[in-house]
Write a structure and sequence with these properties.
The complex is a heterodimer of chains A (528) and B (316). By secondary structure, chain A is of the alpha+beta class. Helices cover 52% and strands 20% of the residues of chain A. Chain A folds into three domains: 213 residues, Up-down Bundle (Multidrug efflux transporter AcrB transmembrane fold); 92 residues, Gyrase A, domain 2 (2-Layer Sandwich); 131 residues, 2-Layer Sandwich (Gyrase A, domain 2). Classes of the chains: A alpha+beta (528), B alpha+beta (316). β18 of chain A pairs antiparallel with β5 of chain B.
């Protein structure tokens, strides 16, 4: 039962500092913002407590594969045409493009040209000599296969680009502190606090928003085009189901937009979206409209025709207007989508969890109530059972909870309702370390030891047991942290941290309290 | 004035826990079998975490909610299996089974329900889990339980002899079997929080077992000649007061969660209370400790003590 002054002070100061880390949580937002950077740390309330929406999105990997395959096929066609090499049977199957070279003398030349399509993989594969294409040739038949690593890299790029675009779209909703993170290979986790109905968010995120301006193909009728699809046109429908034959060639695409704003048309009073092209887009649009006065062109969004107006006069200023029976909201949303840009691949919502602010508030209240009542029960019970020593245990448990909150704040961890349950449970289990020590002391007293010797023996012998029993629980908490998601992970965090702080307080703080008391009073017998 | 302190367990108890195994072992065996039968008969009520589907919790803005018209409205939407459960006067929990047609089809459910119920109710909670995520979460849950058991087993193996690790494992499997049986009978939602509860029960029950095993190991070193049965009884009796007191503090914390913690963690608290309060401590005292009788913990020690007492034979 001996602590040097330095060690005693170190324990007290360390415990106090860790507990003090929790203090910023109590500050009003304005006070908190005024804190210096290093102290600006506090717990984050989980979406289950503050209300909000959790959306897990997945990039459509099939789309990425298909698009990559089609691009490769088009590249092969272009390369062979440019090199004036005759070919037949150009076909795409899965991730493999095959093509037969007509003349045997051209095969080596074709291979040389096609090999230029293959690129070394960047990122994790950089430095190694892995290419994104595998190219083989047997008897004039050349096969180009996109490697798995190439697809993975492309999906990764799609996710990164999508995150930027999703962020722009979510920011337009004006919500506080949305969090958008990549999860795993092909997923994006979007968490938006305070959002009661994520329908609009899902609508905004769920659209690819690929905008193109193309000419309407007047050389064929819709019926003919549906019966035998032409090579350079396709049949697309408007939102109302009206079919159009639209050229595949894109005049100007959404990438060339530099601004889009909702507005009302001065003459008709209906909602429209005004847009502006960059200089390259403006030039192409001017050329196309000049050459096609009197013909209709189509504005196509995600393979739906929004409108197909006739070109009355050349549009030279690079500015235009999209109309198509919009409401204020749909016009505004389309403007948001156009400003943020198109997603490289469609995103699907594969998990949604939304908690209304009302339920969140109720959960906080219920959690706090349970925590207080549980703690008071335990405190009273410990005091009735161990008297003064019970009081020591209660102080140690209070310090313990303070340290849990301090560490959670330091880590900026998320506090969830199961997390609060973890703290309550820690209170119940933390006193176990004290119980083990006190019971051991009682035994040693019964065995006839003096007060000091019983205290020493009690602490020393109980500590090994405390370590063993807590570490087994800690293993369970660590596993839970790795397999759990969201609120359950919050439980693993508080429960795990609770075990560590319990070990700390049992080994140092409780012992120090008892030692200080002993040195002050020098009792002959122990009130235990 | 001195207030006498509470002594729940008298000093120096001599309860024959090991003898009690003649009752506790068959009892636990029967209960475990019943639990397994209950599992196969009723099955676990898989929540949307593992089964996929939609949960919508609504609260009426007016006084009372009438569940029958709401059920009729929702059944007209043709969404497959729809379950409604009322809480209090004005809250209803709607569960809708996973829709055929992959992830995209699930989102349409919420839109339809919102359109059908309109603004007369407040949407307190909406959860939609698609087929891909639910399959993964189930996988994680199973892997998690497996990893925890293996991790703890390895730890115990390092810290104790293998017999103790085996005894603790049997006790553990027993706890998990009974808790799963409890969930099958009560049909409490089995979801990610249930896995959290199971893992915590696992950790806590082991915590208890380890405390008793620690004492038994200490006694094994101290009393070389005491018969195993008496030694095991001594170990359990010496730690009995601690077991009871800790048990009570954990129960107090859990009851607080169960009664005041709100519905969101009610299932979690109920499973924990069953596992920790009713099963965990019983297992440590009546199963884990007496189990050591059969695992040959004493055998090694007896041989050692024989050699010690007759040094002449081993010295050439």
């Amino acid at each position: 039962m001996h602590f040097s002054t330095t060690r005693a002070l170190a324990i007290i100061v360390f415990s106090a500092i860790v507990c003090a880390l929790a203090v910023p949580n109590l500050f009003a937002p304005a006070t908190f913002d005024a804190l210096p950077g290093a102290l600006k740390r506090k717990m984050v309330l989980g979406l289950d407590l503050q209300g909000g929406s959790h959306l897990l999105l997945q990039v459509d990997a099939d789309f990425v594969r298909k698009e990559k395959g089609e691009n490769l096929r088009d590249d092969v066609r272009r390369v062979l045409r440019d090199a004036k090499i005759g070919y037949t049977n150009l076909a795409l199957q899965g991730l493999t493009v095959s093509v037969r070279i007509r003349e045997e003398k051209d095969v080596q030349e074709a291979l040389r040209k096609l090999r230029e399509l293959s690129q070394p993989l960047a990122g994790v594969f950089s430095g190694s000599n892995i290419q994104d294409l595998e190219i083989t040739e047997t008897g004039g038949l050349i096969r180009l296969t996109i490697s798995n690593a190439g697809i993975i890299q492309r999906i990764g790029q799609s996710v990164e680009q999508s995150i930027e675009i999703v962020r722009k779209r979510v920011d337009e909703l004006g919500t506080v502190e949305p969090s958008i993170q990549r999860q795993g290979l092909d997923r994006i986790l979007v968490q938006v606090p305070g959002l009661d109905n994520p329908k609009r968010l899902i609508d905004l995120i769920g659209q690819t928003a690929k905008l193109t301006f193309r000419m309407v193909d007047l050389t064929t009728s819709v019926q003919q085009a549906q019966a035998s699809p032409p090579a350079d046109s396709e049949v697309l429908q408007s939102n109302e189901g009206q079919p159009y034959v639209i050229e595949k060639r894109v005049v100007v695409a959404g990438e060339d937009l530099i601004d889009a704003q909702p507005s009302t048309d001065q003459r008709s009073g209906e909602w429209v979206v005004n847009f502006r092209f960059n200089s390259a887009g403006a030039r192409r649009f001017a050329n196309a409209t000049r050459d096609n006065v009197g013909r209709p062109f189509a504005i196509v969004l995600d393979n739906k025709v929004i409108s197909a107006p006739n070109i009355r006069e050349p549009i030279l200023g690079g500015q235009g207007q999209i109309s198509g029976s919009f409401t204020a909201q749909t016009a505004n949303d389309l403007a948001i989508l156009l400003r943020a840009g198109a997603l490289p691949a469609p995103l699907t919502v594969i998990e949604e969890r939304t908690v209304g602010a009302g339920l969140g508030g109720d959960s906080i209240q219920a959690g706090l109530k349970a925590a207080w009542i549980g703690s008071i029960f335990v405190i009273i019970f410990m005091f009735v059972t161990y008297g003064l020593f019970g009081l020591f245990a209660n102080i140690a448990v209070a310090v313990n909870v303070g340290m849990i909150l301090g560490i959670l704040s330091l880590l900026g961890a998320t506090l969830t309702l199961p997390g609060i349950a973890g703290i309550v449970l820690t209170v119940g289990i933390a006193v176990d370390s004290n119980v083990l020590i006190y019971e051991r002391i009682r035994e040693e007293v019964r065995a006839g030891r003096s007060a000091l010797s019983a205290l020493n023996a009690g602490f020393d012998r109980a500590l090994a047991t405390i370590l063993d029993s807590n570490l087994t629980t800690f293993i369970a908490a660590v596993v839970l942290f790795y397999v759990g998601t969201g609120p359950v992970r919050g439980f693993a965090v508080t429960f795990g941290i609770g075990i560590l702080t319990t070990l700390f307080t049992a080994f140092t703080f409780t012992r120090l309290l008892v030692a200080l008391w002993y040195h002050w009073w020098r009792p002959k017998t122990l009130p235990i | 004035m001195r207030i006498p302190l509470l002594r729940l367990v008298p000093d120096d108890t001599k309860i024959d826990f090991v003898q009690f195994r003649r009752i506790s072992f068959p009892l636990s065996a029967i209960l475990s079998i019943l639990a397994v039968l209950a599992y196969f008969h009723y099955g676990l009520n898989l929540g949307i975490d593992f089964k996929g589907g939609t949960i919508i919790e609504v609260q009426s803005k007016t006084e009372k909610i009438d569940i029958a018209p709401m059920r009729a409205t929702l059944e007209k939407l043709d969404l497959g299996e729809v379950q409604l459960q009322q809480f209090g006067a004005n809250e209803v929990l709607i569960r809708i089974a996973q829709q055929p047609g992959g992830d995209a089809a699930q989102q349409a459910v919420v839109t339809k329900v919102r359109a059908a119920l309109g603004d007369a109710v407040e949407y307190r909670r909406v959860e939609v889990v698609g087929p891909r995520v639910s399959a993964e979460l189930l996988g994680y849950g199973i892997i998690g339980l497996g990893l925890a058991i293996i991790g703890i087993l390895i730890y115990l193996w390092f810290r104790f002899e293998w017999q103790f690790a085996l005894g603790a494992m049997i006790a553990n499997v027993h706890d998990i079997a009974l808790t799963i049986g409890f969930m099958a009978i009560t049909q409490i939602d089995f979801d990610l929080t249930s896995v959290a509860a199971l893992l915590t029960i696992l950790g806590y029950s082991l915590n208890d077992t380890v405390v008793i095993y620690d004492r038994i190991r200490e006694l094994l070193r101290k009393y070389k000649r005491l018969p195993m049965k008496e030694l095991l009884n001594e170990g359990v009796n010496q730690t009995l007061s601690r077991s009871v007191i800790t048990h009570i503090t954990v129960t107090l914390a859990l009851v607080a969660l169960l009664v005041w913690g709100g519905r969101a963690i009610h299932g979690f608290a109920a499973v924990m209370t069953f596992g920790v309060v009713l099963v965990g401590t019983y297992t440590s005292v009546f199963i884990a400790a007496p189990m050591l009788m059969y695992l040959g913990v004493g055998a090694h020690r007896d041989r050692e003590s024989t050699t010690e007492n007759t040094p002449a034979r081993v010295t050439p």
